[in-house]
Amino acid sequence: MKRLEKERLLSKSDLLRAETEGQRQRAVASAQTLTVSRLESEVKSKEKSHEVRLAQLQRDAALLEGEIGTLEATVQRQEFAIKQRQIRAPVAGELGEIAELSAGGFVGEGQKIGAIIPSGELKLIAQFSPLTAAGRIRTGQTARLRPAGFPWAQYGCVAASVMSVANEPRGGQLRVELSVRSDSVSTPGYLVAGIVID
């Protein structure tokens, strides 16, 4: 436009108007450059702030995970301590006998404080000397139990039959399992330790 104005093809007022417009566009471009620079600076500042916040959150998460692990270990330790202080029966059934305990008394680990009668068929377990019982007691034989402490003439006997006989003695005794029968035993038999084997 300056060349056009030199060659007198453009008026002074048009040149001034064009220069003014050029200055205005340069000012707008400069302002936009400053705005872009400011926005870039703000974005970098926000990124730094987010990175700092993320690092803080990760540190807090690591601390919380450590606390959770410690609390879980404490809970497991307390649960184990509670289980050690629980009274558990080895089988389900009815309470048949209980030890006399006074309030505030101490119960040791493994101490017997009661007897549980399991549900199901009643079985009698007898221990015999192998010298007197081996070869004489067989499966299917009838038997009578005379409970100790109860005179059998007054209270009678419990009728039973031999279910199984151990093949070998254990602890110097031969184990015999018997099942209780509903009918009574009237014939005399072989008496060992309160059990009569017919």
Fold and architecture overview:
- With 198 residues, this protein is an alpha+beta fold.
- The protein folds into two domains: 2-84; 114-197, Elongation Factor Tu (Ef-tu), domain 3, CATH 2.40.30.
- It has four helices and eight strands.
- The protein has a six-stranded antiparallel sheet with strand order 3-6-5-4-8-7. It has a two-stranded antiparallel ribbon with strand order 1-2.
- The longest helix is centred in the N-terminal third of the chain and has 73 residues, at 12-84.
- Mean pLDDT is 81; it is low at 185-193.
Protein traits:
single chain; 198 residues; alpha+beta; Elongation Factor Tu (Ef-tu), domain 3; 2 domains; 6-stranded antiparallel sheet; two-stranded antiparallel sheet; 4 helices; 43% helix; 21% strand
Classify the helix fraction into a percent range: 40-55%
**What is the CATH C level class of the largest domain, in words?**
Mainly Beta
In percent terms, what proportion of residues is strand? 15-25%
Q: Order of strands in the sheet with the most strands?
A: 3-6-5-4-8-7
Distance between the termini: 141 Å
Rounded to an integer in angstroms, the radius of gyration calculated over CA atoms is 50 Å
**CATH architecture grouping of the largest domain:** Beta Barrel
Shape: rod-shaped
Structural class: alpha+beta
